[in-house]
Design brief:
Layout lengths: L1 E4 L2 E4 L6 H7 L23 E4 L6 E2 L9 E4 L3 H15 L16 H9 L22 E3 L9 H9 L6 E3 L6 E3 L13 H5 L5 E3 L12 E6 L8 E7 L2 E7 L12 H5 L13 E4 L2 E4 L2 H14 L5 E5 L5 H13 L4 E4 L17 H6 L2 E5 L3 H4 L1 H14 L2 E5 L9 E5 L2 H8 L5 H7 L3 E6 L8 H15 L7 E4 L5 H6 L15 E5 L3 H17 L10 E6 L22 E4 L8 E4 L5 E4 L14 H6 L10 H11 L42 H4 L2 H13 L5 E3 L1
Helix pairs in contact: 2-3, 8-18
Family: Belongs to the complex I 75 kDa subunit family.
GO molecular function, one term: metal ion binding
Cofactor: [4Fe-4S] cluster; [2Fe-2S] cluster
């Protein structure tokens, strides 16, 4: 369809708005309320343009183009209209620019400079509006609000939590939660990015810096398996905020509150130097002594009595270095920190293509709660349900959905009933053009995981109800897929038997709790048997959750089993490779060498010092070997095409009726960095205070 923008001919698709047509030819039309990811509201009237033969200016964001339409964006009428709109918006807007955190990045400030008048005709008293309490993350100064309703539409349309709304009319219009409570979404920080003025700003960022004082580095989110793209802003040697980086294939323009606000945890409760346990205190060590002590333990112990456990949030370079060390020392007890019972070829099986969610019209969730495990995927499910009326069902694992959902049960027996067609929803799946089954990582912790996968494949192979590439696994950890790429097996309790040395590389807090419970059980069993569990335990990582804050007193917080602590580096202090839940290769960036004055080292450097047999003596050597193991590691932001094809299909399988348990209970405290964050602690407390269930139907 041909249209003319300022006498420039442009070809656009039908139903394109005038504003979008203007952007095609590079003409900037000012706007406040319009956002490409939100519905059109037409509130602000800032995007007024002149259309030939139209009696008055029209809103470009809401006006669709028509054949041979002639649009003008720079006529005197348009300029006068924009000037008038800005004058109305500024009537009650306070002169807070010198103290406003939005200063330098404010849409209103910039557009007034370009399109506004140089004087005001308003001499009356400006109105004032009471600020709202929206929780520990969002600071509100509602007198600055221009009622664009971006925040209202985001909460309802994107986050799926309609906690915000407007009250009153005209000049008395206010935006708020109506009842005083926190905004119940894991994506609330995006409201700060959306607000075109300084009405909604970040509480942790308040009065910390101006935009021209900030330097930025691109990185990725390592707090879940989605791998959202982020931008880390820092001033001098301190991170002061984290912002989203647009990537339509992964996170669009959004990020979770966890990665946005947990940066204060990078400085708190850090391991600052090597420490050795002595009775009930920790003794500081220099690096040479710590490496010598550990190296002696590893090289003199029986390889069959050494265990190495790598956390699923560790980068691939570290995991590969650990695998290389295990190979050099002939250590067979080597695993991740999660019980991943995977019996099929990973490269053909266990991934979740994010874009599939946009296409699905019928989805079954099994043993997963995407709102807590992968909030950005949950966002796509919510929007798909809203726009396409996609039907979504769940078996186990769901707590608080942000979209209407039908709950089918809580055990694998309910799943078998679904496969056998004993449930009415099977009709929906049979009719669906693009069905999708997503099962969670919690299923991989079960003893009947292999039977579950084989049952699904065997049944689906016989009835062809669901295409094989529509059966997907949602990984909850940042690099769980990367470890599977490297062939690192899942954890088994057998690994802990008959150990002299146990080497832990940034495992999860849940795994450390498991170790403490395991030792307690063995201690109780030793009263009646010869069982014992007393290995030399080494913990390597950037945070250690069971110590007092910053180790000031060097005292135990609880009876832990670790004997040696080695400080590693966080994702902002080193470059690392991660593979997200769809097997997309992404990399973190080094922002600075270390936070404060911490005597830490990169994890692969520590590992390569422990044996003379290792050959990984440089980061280049590690990267080269990683590309041998995972060919696509050199192709950043690329995905390996995956489809669920079993190697073997077993018969006579046995499934257990144990209820499917959710993997995550507290969204804000799932990672060592977020667990050390004061801000995340406040969010967790606020969430527990206002937590409630909604929009869940039972069938």
């Amino acid at each position: 369809m041909k249209v003319y923008i300022n006498n420039i001919e442009v070809e656009v698709a039908p139903n394109t708005t005038v504003l979008e047509a203007c952007s095609v030819v590079g003409i900037d039309v000012p706007r406040f309320c319009y956002h490409q990811e939100l519905s059109v509201a037409g509130n602000c009237r800032m995007c007024l343009v002149e259309i030939e033969k139209a009696p008055k200016p029209v809103a470009a964001c809401a006006m669709p183009v028509s054949p041979n339409m002639k649009v003008f964006t720079d006529t005197p009428l348009v300029k006068k209209a924009r000037e008038g709109v800005l004058e109305f918006l500024l009537l009650n807007h306070p002169l807070d620019c010198p103290i406003c955190d939005q200063g330098g990045e404010c849409d209103l400030q910039e557009q007034v400079m370009v399109y506004g008048s140089d004087r005001s005709r308003f001499y009356e008293v400006k109105r004032s509006v009471e600020d709202k309490n929206c929780g520990p993350l969002i600071k509100t100064i509602m007198t600055r609000c221009i009622h664009c309703t971006r925040c209202v539409r985001f909460a309802a349309e994107v986050a799926g939590v309609p906690d915000l709304g407007t009250t009153n009319r005209g000049q008395d219009t206010e935006i708020g939660t109506f009842i005083e409570k926190t905004i119940q979404t894991e994506l609330s920080g995006n409201l700060v990015d959306l607000c075109p003025v300084g009405a909604l700003t970040s509480k942790p960022y308040a009065f910390n810096a101006r935009p021209w004082e900030i330097r930025s580095v691109e990185s990725i989110d390592v707090f879940d398996g989605v791998g959202s793209n982020i931008r880390v802003d820092f001033k001098e040697a301190e991170i002061i905020r984290v912002l989203p980086r647009a990537n339509q294939e992964i996170n669009k323009e959004w990020i979770t509150d966890k990665v946005r606000f947990s940066y204060d945890g990078l400085k708190q409760q850090r391991l600052t130097q090597p420490l050795q346990k002595l009775a009930t205190t920790w003794e500081p060590l220099i690096w040479a002594d710590a490496i010598q002590q550990l190296s002696k333990k590893l090289n003199t112990s029986n390889p069959n009595k050494i265990g190495i456990v790598v956390g699923n949030s560790v980068d691939s370079e570290t995991a590969l270095s650990a695998k290389h060390l295990a190979s050099a020392l002939n250590i067979s007890k080597f695993s991740t920190d999660r019980m991943l019972n995977v019996d099929a070829d990973f490269s053909n099986a266990y991934s979740l293509a994010v874009n599939k969610i946009n296409e699905t019209d019928c989805c079954l969730l099994v043993g997963t709660d995407p709102r807590l495990e992968a909030s950005l995927l949950n966002l796509r499910l919510q929007q798909n349900n809203r726009r396409k009326n996609a039907k979504i069902f769940s078996i186990g694992g769901l707590s608080q959905a942000t979209f209407p959902i039908t709950y089918l049960g809580s055990t694998l027996k309910d799943f078998v009933n679904f496969l056998e067609g004993k449930h009415p929803v099977c009709v929906d799946f049979k009719k669906a053009k693009s069905p999708l089954i997503i099962y969670g990582t919690s299923l991989l912790d079960r003893v009947d995981t292999s039977q579950f996968q084989s049952t699904l494949l065997q049944f689906n192979d016989s009835v062809k109800m669901i295409p094989q590439n529509s059966i997907n696994l949602l990984h909850s950890d940042a690099n769980q897929v990367g470890h599977l790429n490297l062939g690192i097996p899942g954890f088994s309790p057998e690994l802990l038997k008959d150990l002299d040395v146990l080497y832990l590389i940034q495992p999860s807090t849940a795994f450390l709790n498991y170790l403490n419970d395991y030792k307690l059980q063995i201690s109780e069993a030793s009263l009646t048997s010869n069982a014992e569990f007393n290995p030399f335990v080494v913990y390597q990582g950037h945070h250690f959750p069971f110590m007092n804050s910053h180790l000031k007193n060097c005292e135990f917080e609880r009876n832990i089993i670790v004997d040696l602590l080695l400080p590693g580096k966080t994702f902002v202090e080193k470059e690392g490779t991660f593979f997200n839940t769809e097997n997309r290769c992404q990399k973190t960036s080094q922002i600075f060498k270390s936070v404060s004055n911490i005597q830490n080292r990169e994890d692969w450097q520590i590992l390569q010092c422990l044996s003379e047999k290792t050959k990984l003596r440089s980061s280049a050597a590690v990267s080269h070997m990683l590309s041998d193991y995972v060919p696509n590691s050199a192709n950043v932001n690329q995905v390996v095409n995956c489809s669920l094809e079993p190697i073997t299909v077993f018969k006579g399988l046995k499934l257990y009726s144990t209820p499917l348990k959710p993997l995550i209970n507290d969204f804000y405290l799932t990672h060592p960095i977020s667990q050390a964050s004061t801000i995340m602690g406040k969010c967790s407390s606020a969430k527990r205070k206002w937590s409630h269930n909604y929009l869940v139907s039972s069938n």
